[in-house]
Amino acid sequence: MVIRFAKKTANSEFLTGWNFPRLRKRASGLRIVALALQWAFIPSFVQAGQDKPHKADMPGMQMSADEDMRDMGPSMAAMAGHMYITPLRQRQPADEEKAKAVVAALKSAIERYKDYRKALADGYVIANPKLKQPQYHFMSQTNTRLADLGFDPTKPTALLYRRTPMLEYKLEGAMYTANPDATEDELNERIPLSVVRWHKHMNVCWAPENRVKDYKSAHPKFGMFGSINTQEACTAERGTFNASLFTWMIHVFPYETDFKEAFSMNDDVAHVH
């Protein structure tokens, strides 16, 4: 199954490591996300495992009033003020079967990558390998470009590996991306939005050079976990504002025995058993 969109896209860029000055200058052209973006600067209240913030405390959160965040882990919830998450649509006949077909195709396609060395041999690159992460993204530049134009469930943008007591790289699942200009109807053609929820990052203020330590503060103003989410507030703090950052994305965990967990938005728990 391959869905193609005739949409002109910007050149893809491949992020295997990053620093904030470079990212600020080039964020509008980036088309891929490494998990280090979500973990390198997690504020202390998330690391300590405190309760997820209430939706009312998340300015900029784009969700309908009847939706909540109980399915998110604390690290995802902490970024909620800088995310748009697709609302669930009404279930249509065959939606679940279509989603299950994607999971089955992915599981078959990535089986060989249980040996992470085969992933490296096939061109996947570890995002920030020197940074200890509970979950690693192995990124494919080729598949990123393909994902901008269409959808092939056997060619994920990234492979997801979990750190375990026995293995540093244990295959857990994969990440799909889509062109940031894709409509929700186009996302629905890839995987039905009655079953899954895609997300993209938005309204992020990067800190000025002399304030980068703020990213790891208990209550950061800047970055993916920061309280600033408007151009005006960012300018007042001499930061660099990005109204839209990166691309549409979704994680899929085909080794979950419970299908409803296959598209979980909680990356803080292991999805391999």
Walk me through this protein's architecture.
The strands form two sheets. Strands 2-8-9-7-6-4-3 form a seven-stranded antiparallel beta sheet. It has a two-stranded antiparallel sheet with strand order 1-5. The protein has nine helices and nine strands. 23% of the residues lie in helices and 18% in strands. The radius of gyration is 18 Å and the shape is globular. It has helices at residues 20-26, 36-39, 44-47, 74-78, 95-110, 116-121, 141-149, 184-190, 231-236, and strands at residues 3-4, 83-85, 125-126, 135-139, 150-151, 158-162, 170-178, 199-206, 240-252. The protein has one domain (3-258). A hairpin with a 7-residue loop joins β6 and β7. It is α+β, with helices and mostly antiparallel strands.
Descriptive key words:
single chain; alpha+beta; 9 helices; disordered N terminus
The biggest sheet, with number of strands, parallel, antiparallel or mixed sense and barrel status, is: 7 strands, antiparallel
Query: Can you count the beta strands?
Result: 9
Please tell me how large the radius of gyration is.
Answer: 18 Å
Instruction: Give the strand content.
Output: 15-25%
Structural class: alpha+beta
**Helix proportion of residues, in percent?**
10-25%
Record the strand order, biggest sheet. Answer: 2-8-9-7-6-4-3
Integer count of domains: 1
What is the overall number of helices? Answer: 9
Mean pLDDT score, rounded?
Answer: 77
Specify the overall morphology. globular
Low-confidence stretches: 2-68
- How do the SSEs run, as a string of H and E? EHHHHEHHEEHEEEHEHE
Distance between the termini: 29 Å
